[in-house]
TrEMBL record:
Residues in PilZ domain copies: 6-103
Organism expressing this protein natively: Sulfurivirga caldicuralii
Pfam family, one: PilZ
Segments crossing the lipid bilayer: none
Record protein name field: PilZ domain-containing protein
GO molecular function, one term: cyclic-di-GMP binding
UniProt cross-references to Gene3D superfamilies, sorted A to Z: predicted glycosyltransferase like domains
InterPro entries, alphabetized: PilZ_domain
Length: 120
């Protein structure tokens, strides 16, 4: 049995608002892919919890505002905060395209930085 290829994932370090049924929290996106993201959160959320996700992503042209729904797939307690692995729930083409544009942007910055280091 072959596994589906993993979605491209990049480090993000972007602010995010998590909206639960009874609470709202501000967190930090650690990394992101077209299928989900890893968030550092000050509050705990159980696996299976649906959360509203509000954040924006820079691309070459502009910042893209994102408002979508995700479900907590993984929870890791780390001292005074939590890492939440969140899978996007029914991600549409617009969301996938925005994330792919962000990933392309981040990878181009890394590539340009690498070229500059080699030329100096």
């Amino acid at each position: 049995m072959t596994q589906a290829p993993r979605a491209r994932r990049v480090t993000a370090n972007r602010p995010i608002t998590l909206q639960g049924e009874h609470a709202r929290a501000n967190g930090k996106i650690i990394n992101i892919s077209a299928s989900g993201l890893l968030v550092k959160s000050p509050v705990r959320a159980r696996e299976g919890t649906r959360l509203g996700l509000i954040f924006d992503l820079p691309t070459r042209e502009r910042f893209i505002p994102i408002k979508t729904i995700g479900r907590v797939a993984r929870l890791i307690e780390e001292g005074d905060h939590y890492l939440l692995g969140i899978m996007f729930e029914n991600p549409g083409d617009d969301l996938r395209q925005a994330i792919e544009s962000y990933i392309d942007y981040v990878e181009s910055i890394k590539q340009n930085a690498s070229v500059r280091r080699r030329s100096t």
